[in-house]
Amino acid sequence: MSQWSQVQQLEIKFLEQVDQFYDDNFPMEIRHLLAQWIETQDWESAANNEAMAMILLQNLIIQVDEQLDRVSQEKNLLLIHNLKRIRKLLQGKYHGNPMHIAVIISNCLREERRILAAASMPVQGPLEKSLQNSVVSERQRNVEHKVSAIKNSAQMTDQDVKYLEDLQEEFDFRYKTIQSLEQNDKNSALIKQEMLALQAMLNTLDYKRKEVLSKIGRVIHEIDMLMSNMLTEELLDWKRRQQIACIGGPLHGGLDQLQNCFTLLAESLFQVRRQLEKLDELLTRLTYDGDPIPVQRPQLLEKVNFLLYNLFRNSFVVERQPCMPTHPQRPMVLKTLIQFTVKLRLLIKLPELNYQIRVKATIDKNVSTVSNRRFVLCGTHVKAMNMDESANGSLSVEFRHLQPKEMKTSAGSKGNEGSHMVTEELHSISFETQVCLYGLTINLETSSLPVVMISNVSQLPNAWASIIWYNLSTNDPQNLSFFNNPPAATLSQLLEVLSWQFSSYVGRGLNSEQLNMLAEKLTGQPVSYNDYQLSWAKFCKEHLPGKSFTFWVWLEAILDLIKKHILPLWIDGYVMGFVSKEKERILLKDKTPGTFLLRFSESNLGGITFTWVDQLENGDVTFHSVEPYNKGRLSALPFADILRDYKVIMADNVPENPLKYLYPDIPKDKAFGKHYSCQPNEVSKPSDGGVKGYVPSVFIPVSKILNDSTEPHSPSDLLPMSPSVYAVLREHLSPTAIESAVS
């Protein structure tokens, strides 16, 4: 079943979550019509490879054209209209930046997988629940409402300033007219009456000046309160959601909404600044005793400038954290001399700033790290922010060609380059720029989340564990000494994050039974893990009891095994995986003989095995488990084919496949049939491949079980034997002869 088919079967509350991240950037119609094709493309790699992204975009448009031809024949006018609109959108919006559509589709597929994983959980995880807090959603709506109200107030004050300007011009004209009269004329009753009118007008001017200043003060106060409270909280929440998304959690959104709020507030502040400048202009033309402008205007202007400085400083954010294109699902782990990408955005989107802001990237600037190693960034480390590279028109800059390089020590040799790097050392990528606008000069700085530097990809698993633990445990974006004394983590939150590793990396999260097994593995006993605290050492540094590896190394090896060798079977949900030997026997003991299940090895790294139940002649139940298959053996023979062709020889019996039903009662071929690489026992012709003149051979997994043993003697030995040869053996030879042949 395709991922999209699974999504469509979700409950309405989960479908509403899916609906939230499909919009005009990637219409749901295309996701629906091209579901199978979309899910077979490598969008993650394309998100960091422009040439690959362009090919996928062109192929996507071709797929849309084919759908358009089909619906045209069916005369479906509405769908024809929508597809033409979508085709135009894809060509116009992404032709100049094809990687953006790859990022969008990759994120949508990942978010679908996460929602499917969440739907399989009996309850929502604690982290995800906190991120979807109704109070947070209400605050978001309040922020948008208040920003809109502030913008309206600033515009209304503009009208008041204009009225004040018109009133002052009238006063100025009438006053100058009287001043131009002869002295004798000034003593007339009419002139005295005009002077009284001018005094009344001056009183009105004074009142209006005070009123305008009061309104400007209220607007400034509202902006100050909004920035100090709700907007700051919104920004911190977005940064926290970004942290969680980086370690596999829910896709973080809301940056466009924040950009809209920041931009409107900046526009309002600049509008207020212009109003204060206009008041200064009016002051130079007319002042009087008790004039409020020279008293209040400097204080208000100082406050406006202060708010603009803070608004700009908070608006400079890392939109996409540092990440190597080769490992898109392992952000913040950087390898020396390997390029990484990072994207920054200024949330204040003003046309005047396009191509006017140059951003400089540095590493470990003004930071005392716990490491003696020092790095420099090679490649293009200064670029201008612009609105042209992003499909949504945001003011941003993306560094795509940065490389970290370790500096030489004072002794003249590189510090630890090439040696075993400590994967708990944290470093920081910093960015600085300067904004010059309307007479203001504002210096801006921001930093990435802490990154881990490695010199060899073999260090990546432990480095990624450090990234997970840091971002799970703290909101602090710059605690580079975190691992001097790493705090414990709540087991319930850690298990939720571990499930995200599977949903984001291999397409299917873990259910409650699988998580329970991992909890027991981590703690060594059945626990109520809602408030259980687990140490960093237990997770990543201490070996499992009786093993030569840690829990995390064991789990990471399983992720790698799934990704490279059994991904379709895992996504279909046919791999139980995390179940102990004791539990598997409880599950199988009452099942039909030949029922089997698939589980990951607890003693071998990156191994998968299967166990089946059998019944002896006396009615006793017995269990058989094969030696775990590792990546080396699975590279030679697909796992689905192993399950199909696996044979067991017992005593003088004919070799037969003991695997009949996948637990609980799914016929084996029904579960795995679509994943078989070819039909079994087909007679191959000499010209069907391989070396000319030879019949191609295949590997047949065979085990021999002795009478006095319940376990395969030489588990899953791979014997080179063509399907046609095996078919002939079964047809013409006795069981004893076959046993001799395969032994």
From TrEMBL:
Indicate where this protein is primarily found. cytoplasm
Q: Transmembrane region positions?
A: none
| PANTHER family, per the entry | SIGNAL TRANSDUCER AND ACTIVATOR OF TRANSCRIPTION (PTHR11801)
Q: Which GO terms describe its molecular function?
A: DNA binding; DNA-binding transcription factor activity, RNA polymerase II-specific
Q: A Gene Ontology CC term for this entry?
A: nucleoplasm
Which InterPro entries does the record match to this protein?
p53-like_TF_DNA-bd_sf, SH2, SH2_dom_sf, STAT, STAT4_CC, STAT4_DBD, STAT4_SH2, STAT_linker
Q: Which residues form a coiled coil?
A: none
The UniProt entry's GO biological process terms, in alphabetical order, are: cell surface receptor signaling pathway via JAK-STAT; defense response to virus; negative regulation of developmental process; regulation of apoptotic process; type I interferon-mediated signaling pathway; type II interferon-mediated signaling pathway
List UniProt keywords, sorted A-Z.
Answer: Acetylation, Activator, ADP-ribosylation, Coiled coil, Cytoplasm, DNA-binding, Isopeptide bond, Methylation, Nucleus, Phosphoprotein, SH2 domain, Transcription, Transcription regulation, Ubl conjugation
State its location(s). Cytoplasm; Nucleus
| Domain of life (superkingdom) | Eukaryota
Residues forming the SH2 domain are 570-672
Which organism encodes this protein? Pitta sordida
**This protein's name:** Signal transducer and activator of transcription
Q: State the family named in the UniProt similarity comment for this chain.
A: Belongs to the transcription factor STAT family.
**UniProt KW DNA-binding keyword:** yes
